[in-house]
User: Fold this.
Amino acid sequence: MAKPCVFCRIVAGEVPASIVHADDDHVAFLDARPLFHGHTLLVPRVHVETLADLPATAVGPFFTAVQRLSVAVPAAMEAAGTFVAMNNVVSQSVPHLHCHVVPRNPKDGLRGFFWPRTTYADDAQRDAVAARIAAALAALAAG
Assistant:
C-alpha cells in the first residue's frame, strides 16, 4: 500500500500540525510554509485530490467552512481581508484537495500572480471559446 499523503496523515493525527478547526468532514490547520502568519489550509477528511473529485454533496459544506475561515482568519490576525485560493493539479504541492485562506493587508508585499495575459483575435474567437466551455458544461450536466 502506498504511503498516505501528508494531509491524510495530519487528519489522522500521525503528523503534528497546528489545528484551527476540525469537524466530522474537515480539518483546518496552519500552513507549514505560510505566506503570512495565520495562513490556513482547509482539507476534507476524506482523501480527494482535486475539487472535481469532491462529491457534489460535500462542495457546499466545504465552501461554508472556507467562508467561515475567511472571516475568522483576518479577525484573529487583525488583517483587512483574505486571499482565498485553490490549485487543482498544476501547482498543487500536495495531491489532496486543500484551500488556502491567507490574511491580507494593503501593501503587505504579496504581489499577486504574474500570469501572462492574452487577447482574443476577435469577437468570433472569443464566442467560439465560450461555446466550447458551454458545450463541456452541457455534457457534464447530461451525465
